[in-house]
Amino acid sequence: MKPFIYDYTYEQLKEWMKDNGEPAFRAEQLFQWIYVKRVKDFDQMTNLSKELRQKLEDSFQFVTLEEITKLESKDGTVKFLFGLHDAHAIETVIMRHSYGNSICVTTQVGCRIGCTFCASTLGGLKRNLTAGEIVAQVVTAQQMLDATEERVSSIVIMGSGEPFENYDATLAFLRIMIHEKGLHIGQRHITVSTSGIVPSMYKFADENTQINLALSIHAPNDKLRSKLMPVNRRFPFEDVMEACRYYLAKTGRRITFEYALIGGVNDRPEHAEELAEVLKDLLCHVNLIPVNHVPERNYVRTPRNDIFEFARILENKGINVTIRREQGHDIAAACGQLRAKHMESTAR
Ligand code: SF4
C-alpha cells in the first residue's frame, strides 16, 4: 500500500523533494495544494510539472474517509462515523461555539485504556491511526465548512483513543496542523487530552509547544481513580500529579483537569473538597463533565443541583471551574457511542 500524503510533515515533504531532485519550494506548493486549496488529486496541482505530479501519484495516496453516518444536532453539532480503508470505523465531531468551530478528532480505532464510563473502550484497541488518518478528519471537516465559508478554529484531541499511546502519529499530526503554510491552526487553540500516560506527559512537556494539555483526572485520589480508570494502576495518581507539576514548571501553561461526574460514585461534596486540596497550588482549570448514560456500565447521571454544588465547592477554594455544555445530546455524541452501535449492527 502506498503511504498517505497526509502522513508527511512539511519538513518530511521537503526532504522527499530533495531526494527526488526537486527544489525545496516545491514542498511549499504541494502543502498549499493539499491544505489551503484542499485538492485531493495530484493532477490538479497545475504549478507542479507533469513528471512531478506523476511521481507523487506513484508514491503516495490520499486518505479516503467514507462517510458511513452523518448526524446533525439541533445545536449545530455534526457527528461523523467514517469508514477507513480496512473496514474499521472512527468518529469525528464538529462542535459549533460562539467563538468558532471546534473539531474533536480520534487517534486510535477503539481504546485499551478501559475507563469504566466510556463506550470507546468496550471492544478494546483495534489499531493506531496514522498521522494522516487523523489529519484527514480535520481536512474533511474543513471541506464541509468550506461550503459556508467557515473555518476550523480549534481542535481537541479527545475522541476515541489515548493520543499519548500513539505519540509519534499525534505529534506529526500536530506539526501538520500548526504549520503556517498549511491549515495554520493556532497552537493555543489545540488541546491534547490524556488519561495520564506519565512518560509521554514528560516528553510532551519537553516538546516546547504552546499546545494545551488536558488531564482526565476523574477522581480525587488513587483508590477511586483506579476503580474508574484501570490505567491508574499502571501510572499511579501521585506519579501523574508529579508529571503535571513538571509540565507546569516547564511550560508555564495552565492544565485543564477533566472530571466526569458519575452519580453517587465521584460526585459527593467530600470528593470536591479532596479535589480542591489536590489542585490547590496548581495553575489549572477544572472542566466538569456530567456523564452520559452508558447502559453497559450502569452509571447514573449526577443531579443538576449536585453538579452546581460540586462546582461551588471548588470555586470557593479558588479553583477555576466550568461545567461542560452538553452538545449533540440528541445525536448520541458521547465518545464511542456511534461506533459501538455500528459495530453491533455489522456483527449481526
Ligand atoms: S475516555 Fe478516552 S482514554 Fe478513557 S477509555 Fe475512553 S477513549 Fe480511552
From TrEMBL:
It comes from the Bacteria. It is an enzyme of class 2 (transferase). Its EC number is 2.1.1.192. The active site is at E91 (proton acceptor), C335 (s-methylcysteine intermediate). [4Fe-4S] cluster binds at C111, C115, C118. One of its GO terms (molecular function) is methyltransferase activity. Keywords: 4Fe-4S, Cytoplasm, Disulfide bond, Iron, Iron-sulfur, Metal-binding, Methyltransferase, rRNA processing, S-adenosyl-L-methionine, Transferase, tRNA processing. Pfam families: Radical_SAM, RlmN_N. Its cofactor is [4Fe-4S] cluster. Binds 1 [4Fe-4S] cluster. The cluster is coordinated with 3 cysteines and an exchangeable S-adenosyl-L-methionine. Reaction proceeds by a ping-pong mechanism involving intermediate methylation of a conserved cysteine residue. Belongs to the radical SAM superfamily. RlmN family. HAMAP family: RNA_methyltr_RlmN. Specifically methylates position 2 of adenine 2503 in 23S rRNA and position 2 of adenine 37 in tRNAs. This is Probable dual-specificity RNA methyltransferase RlmN. It comes from Paenibacillus chungangensis. The lineage of its organism: Bacteria, Bacillati, Bacillota, Bacilli, Bacillales.
